[in-house]
């Protein structure tokens, strides 16, 4: 099913109404930052997907995110079909070190310092490794409690990302936001993400992301929402008394 974005235009100027609306106003219908995070956590706990946006002044993109422990073949297929196809597995430094998954390059000079590693593939249970089911098998192999470096082949069709230990406090990226959300939801701190694209191959922006999220009944939130939420929880993980 193709995504359809319908926008009204001004009869006088022909400009798209809402073109100048910022991210904050467009997301207002989803509630406050705290409410948006709570809805996302609930969805993840129930094995559902969410849409996570970063700041408009940064990448200004939205990533489709699922928990790694709940990922299904149909969900993986959705990520491959509707997104960029570069499905990334967000890992803590501890898990990446356990699996001896090394950075892709020694000197990361990319603009946003995205911590790509060498890509991976499960050694067993896959064919070419590129199908949705094969990628799920690779993910499940990598996140198994007693997974070993020898369980994985390199390179492969799943792209691990190393999250900063401080989470969104250390880097306001989709990678850290994904791992933080899994932790806050009480899940294994491992998640999957892929950047949402439009049918013509361009990157989806806020309006298109919201349209897609509504079509698939997914919560939408921002990395800044997670920063605010984390700043208002105590060390035991319980929210302090706040005004929603």
UniProtKB/TrEMBL annotation:
Pathway(s) this gene product operates in, as recorded in its UniProt entry: Cofactor biosynthesis; riboflavin biosynthesis; 2-hydroxy-3-oxobutyl phosphate from D-ribulose 5-phosphate: step 1/1
Cofactor-binding details, from the entry: Binds 2 divalent metal cations per subunit. Magnesium or manganese.
Top-rank lineage group of the source organism: Bacteria
Documented EC number(s): 4.1.99.12
Site (Essential for catalytic activity): 157, 195
Keyword Transit peptide: no
GO cellular component: cytosol
Keywords from the UniProt entry: Lyase, Magnesium, Manganese, Metal-binding, Plasmid, Riboflavin biosynthesis
Positions annotated to bind Mg(2+) 1: 59
Biological processes annotated in GO: riboflavin biosynthetic process
Stated name of the protein: 3,4-dihydroxy-2-butanone 4-phosphate synthase
């Amino acid at each position: 099913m193709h995504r359809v974005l319908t926008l009204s235009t001004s009869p006088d100027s022909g400009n798209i109404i809402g073109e100048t609306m910022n991210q904050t106003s467009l997301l207002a219908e989803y509630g406050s930052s705290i409410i948006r995070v709570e809805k996302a956590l609930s969805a993840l706990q129930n094995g559902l997907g969410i849409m996570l946006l970063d700041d408009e002044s940064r990448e200004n993109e939205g990533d489709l995110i699922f928990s790694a422990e709940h990922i299904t073949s149909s969900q993986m297929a959705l990520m491959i079909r509707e997104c960029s196809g570069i499905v990334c597995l967000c890992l803590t430094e501890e898990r990446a070190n356990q699996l001896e998954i090394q950075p892709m390059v020694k000197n990361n000079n990319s603009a946003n310092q995205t911590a790509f590693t060498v890509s991976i593939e499960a050694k067993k249970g896959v064919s070419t490794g590129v199908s949705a089911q094969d990628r799920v098998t690779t993910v499940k192999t990598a996140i198994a409690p007693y997974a070993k470096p020898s369980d994985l082949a390199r390179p492969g069709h799943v792209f691990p990302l190393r999250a900063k230990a401080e989470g969104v406090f250390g880097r306001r990226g989709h990678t850290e936001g994904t791992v933080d959300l899994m932790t806050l939801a009480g899940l294994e701190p491992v998640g999957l993400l892929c950047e949402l694209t439009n049918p013509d191959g361009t990157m989806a922006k806020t309006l298109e992301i919201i349209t897609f999220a509504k079509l698939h009944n997914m919560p939408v939130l921002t990395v800044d929402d997670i920063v605010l939420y984390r700043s208002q929880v105590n060390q035991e993980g319980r929210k302090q008394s706040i005004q929603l």
